[in-house]
Design brief:
Strand 15 (179-184) and strand 16 (187-191) form a beta hairpin. This protein is mainly β and 261 residues long. The protein has a single domain, classed as Jelly Rolls (Sandwich), CATH 2.60.120.200. A 10-stranded antiparallel β-sheet has the order 3-4-5-8-18-10-11-12-13-17, with no helix packed on it. Strands 2, 6, 7, 9, 14, 15, 16 and 19 form an 8-stranded antiparallel β-sheet that branches. Strands 1-20 form a two-stranded parallel ribbon. It is built from 1 helix and 20 strands.
C-alpha cells in the first residue's frame, strides 16, 4: 500500500470523521485506546495504559522510540492480568472489532520448530474453547488467530514470513464481518475474509482470562516462550482502515511521532 499523502485525512471505520493531521501529531479518536510504550518500569511492572507484571526480569533495551521490552525466550514473560471484562482480553466484547499495531524484533532463536508465543489472551489452537487473540511463531512462520468465545468462531492467518533480528511494524485489523487483515511495514500480507473455522462445541462466553506476553496464557511450558523485543504497542477497540495503520508506520519510520493521541 502506498503510504504517501496519508497525512491528509483518514477515513476510519466506526469512528468520528478524520481531520487534517498537523505535522508530528496524530489526532484523538473516539475509540478506546490502550498504549504500551515500555519506557517506564518500576517495581517489576511495565507501566502503560494497563500495567504488566514482569516475571524473571525482561530487559529494557533501546527501541524504535525510547525504550522497548526484551524477552529471552527461556523463562521471561509479562502478565496484564484478567481482562475478560474488556475487548483487550475478551474478543466477544469487541463490538466494533479491534485494531492493534506494534514494532517487533524477533530473535533468530524463536525461528525453530514448534510454537513460540509473542502474546496471547486465549484462542491459541482449534481446540481451546476460551475466546481470545494470539500472535505466535509456528514452525518459524507468523500465526495470528482470533477466537470469538460466545459462538466458537475462529479466524486465523498463518504461514506468514517475517524477518529475523530486525525491527518490523505489525498491524492487525479484525472485525466480525470482515475477518482478519494483517500488515507488515504497511504491506498487506494476509487476510482471512469471513470465518475460517467453526467449532460451536467449543464456544465459551467467559473469554480468554489473562493477556500475557511471550507465553500462551493457558500454558506454563517454557519451550513455548518467545524471544523478541516489543515496542510501541497500541490496541484500539475498533476496526480501523489500512490507511490508519500505514500512517502510523510512516510517521514512526520518519521519526515524526511527537504527540500520541
Amino acid at each position: 500500500m502506498d503510504c504517501q499523502g496519508l497525512n491528509a485525512e483518514l477515513k476510519i471505520n466506526h469512528l468520528v470523521t478524520g481531520r487534517t493531521l498537523p505535522t508530528g501529531i496524530i489526532i484523538a479518536f473516539s475509540a478506546i485506546m490502550l498504549h504500551f510504550p515500555f519506557d517506564n518500569i518500576a517495581d517489576s511492572k511495565a507501566l502503560g495504559a494497563l500495567n504488566a507484571t514482569l516475571y524473571n526480569n525482561p530487559l529494557q533495551v533501546n527501541g524504535i522510540q525510547g525504550k522497548a521490552l526484551s524477552f529471552n525466550g527461556i523463562n521471561q514473560y509479562a502478565d496484564y492480568g484478567n481482562q475478560t471484562s474488556r475487548c483487550f482480553g475478551h474478543v466477544s466484547m469487541c463490538l466494533y472489532g479491534f485494531t492493534t499495531v506494534m514494532w517487533l524484533n524477533i530473535s533468530s532463536q524463536s525461528f525453530v520448530s514448534g510454537n513460540k508465543f509473542i502474546l496471547s489472551s486465549g484462542g491459541q489452537t482449534l481446540h481451546v474453547s476460551r475466546g481470545g487473540f494470539t500472535i505466535l511463531l509456528k514452525n518459524s512462520l507468523l500465526y495470528i488467530a482470533v477466537r470469538h468465545g460466545q459462538d466458537g468462531l475462529l479466524w486465523k492467518a498463518d504461514n506468514i514470513q517475517v524477518p529475523q533480528d530486525v525491527w518490523f511494524h505489525l498491524g492487525v485489523i479484525w472485525s466480525y464481518e470482515r475477518g482478519l487483515d494483517i500488515y507488515i511495514n504497511c504491506e498487506k500480507v494476509a487476510d482471512t475474509g469471513p470465518v475460517t473455522y467453526t467449532a460451536n462445541s467449543n464456544k465459551d462466553a467467559t473469554g480468554g482470562l489473562y493477556m500475557q506476553l511471550a507465553k500462551p496464557n493457558t500454558d506454563t511450558d517454557n519451550a513455548k516462550k518467545g524471544a523478541f523485543i516489543l515496542d510501541e504497542w497500541y490496541f484500539w477497540e475498533s476496526a480501523f482502515t489500512p490507511e490508519f495503520i500505514c500512517y502510523i508506520y510512516q510517521r514512526y519510520s520518519q521519526g515524526k511521532i511527537k504527540v500520541m493521541f
